[in-house]
Amino acid sequence: MKQLSYIFLCLLFGSLNPIEADAQVQEEFIWTKIKPTEVNGRLADKDIDGFNRLPLALKSEVREPVWRLSQHSAGLYLLFTTDAEKIRVEYKVKGNKSMPHMPATGVSGVDLYALDGPSEWRWIRGDFRFQDTISYNYSGISKRSSERVYYLYLPLYTKVEWLKIGVPKNNNLEIKRENKTKQKPLVVYGTSIAQGACASRPGMAWTNILSRNLARPIVNLGFSGNGLLEEPILDYFTKYDAEAIILDCMPNFTRDDMGPEQARKRLREAITLIRSKHKKTPMLLVQHGGYSDGALQQDRNQLYTSLNKVVTDVYHEMIENGVQHIYMLTKEEIGLGVDAFVDGTHPNDHGMIQYARAYEKFLKEQQLIE
Amino acid sequence: MKQLSYIFLCLLFGSLNPIEADAQVQEEFIWTKIKPTEVNGRLADKDIDGFNRLPLALKSEVREPVWRLSQHSAGLYLLFTTDAEKIRVEYKVKGNKSMPHMPATGVSGVDLYALDGPSEWRWIRGDFRFQDTISYNYSGISKRSSERVYYLYLPLYTKVEWLKIGVPKNNNLEIKRENKTKQKPLVVYGTSIAQGACASRPGMAWTNILSRNLARPIVNLGFSGNGLLEEPILDYFTKYDAEAIILDCMPNFTRDDMGPEQARKRLREAITLIRSKHKKTPMLLVQHGGYSDGALQQDRNQLYTSLNKVVTDVYHEMIENGVQHIYMLTKEEIGLGVDAFVDGTHPNDHGMIQYARAYEKFLKEQQLIE
């Protein structure tokens, strides 16, 4: 991607402050290189290479695109505490930094939030530079009596090679890890939408919004174009405890090599496999959320309508067969409107908020989470 | 910008259809090159070069950045009718096709809507290719008994050099122009936010959303970083009739060379100038919408708080001085939340919808539009 220079951005928007940035350069920062084992948001803790989402043991088990996409850090995040008023993040990624319908801030950017109270999420503005090394400079963060807890969401659509966090030399920085024994995660197996396309920044992926709104961990197993209810992935995540398991794979069954009958077969098999290992974990089948062009482009309407019939059929079939703790979130409940998408297939930030709200409402109303 | 190939996008998302695209190549399309005089969404009809927003006579009157930004086609749109099930758009732009925090689809993309009833807006999905010539292919559009009216929004942050629309040779295409005598436009003088940063596609700029929701024309005079209540721009648009005049320039007075006192002086002068030419046209002063980082980054909070005091002061001062038909839209009424921005300064699509809704509610409640 041809990069706009910082100066050009300053001229264009008149809202950045090059003078302050220059002053910062003079200050001495202490840098902490993040160990991949310090990452949160994934199930396996061992046998993982870097900021990948799947363990190395799965490399020979999954198809090549799934492995490649598992190297994207969607849903992963760092936790740290600091008393610093300035925080810097520098890192390097492998892969395209942006896509035509998703900006660099979403594809390869990071996103910083602080938690100031039980549900008081604060977003922190950073000046970003997308060069060979990507940098985010956060400044002017107000002091608090106690050190603040920060969540740094990692890029949604690219592989992070290394990452370091810097604070001024007189401040503390402590990398934390989420207490996994304290709370079981929601596990989401899905598509590009679940992976985070096309959020404008990582914090706007619906899984990350939902995680904040519910104040609980979510594991993102969204694989763009490749959320196909496959056995190696099902085998993998069913080894772990979960608060609930969410199967949101329908949008990928529109592929020419898939279709409604493959969806029916695989959905049945996935439910059976999951139930064989998770006797009581709530399992949520999610319909295709629809396309914003369905009203006029009717072949697109047919794609999701036929798949959603499959989800409804399988859901009722399972209930009749005595499967318990199984639920269905419908297209209508997701409720995406004509302006919820960027390209007709992938939600924009407005659609991402709608997805997260629909999940939150459903999970709470059905009492699927404690 | 390094471009992702179409094939790569197909692999990545599994949602495009290369076979259909190949089949389309075989079909004969008739192309209509758009004359710049066929564009809608601007005040002047003559003395305009290409798809610019300001007439050539203003080139020597405005500062260079304003003239450069006026060449961006924000808020401009083409109207056409066709019975085609396939529509293609090809065009060339000058300038960066994307920005780090705004995707190519927003910066240099086009956006197609149809109007199926008084307020039944349909969005049309297109396959896009951002190459030297940018192309959007729309297909599978359902037939209707009468020809459909289409709105094609032009790019928000780049200059269009030429543009052509193609339909299959057996279909009709008629370029229309909006009937300017039928309805006066809302005129919006503003900043990068008004220009459309950082909507994911042109139709999501708040002026374009509002224009659809109110079913009336809006003239976009948003100049990124340069919405500074300047005389040449005020002189220009006050020559024309308007349903209402909206001054939404405060976010640019955060510039180091501006600040609250410049804002106060210029706001007073602008109101006086406008009232000297428009005795009764409703005039809406808009507060700074705030930043999503205001809670923790307090220097940023101070920026908009001090500017919003200026707007409030000037508003009350004008009322006391007997100025009539003057209104104020507050930060609270705009109501942007922590997740309404991409970079803390520019709304994402969620923020754009919030902006448009706030304006719509205010304009209707205050009965400022017929």
TrEMBL record, chains A, B:
Domain SGNH hydrolase-type esterase as annotated: residue spans: 183-364
Domain SGNH hydrolase-type esterase N-terminal per the UniProt entry, residue ranges: 31-172
Keywords annotated in UniProt: Signal
Keyword Signal annotated: yes
Signal sequence residues: 1-23
Pfam families xrefs: GxDLY, Lipase_GDSL_3
Alphabetical list of InterPro entries matching this protein: GxDLY, SGNH_hydro, SGNH_hydro_sf
Top-level lineage group: Bacteria
GO MF terms, alphabetically ordered: hydrolase activity, acting on ester bonds
Protein name: Hydrolase lipoprotein
Gene source species: Zhouia amylolytica AD3
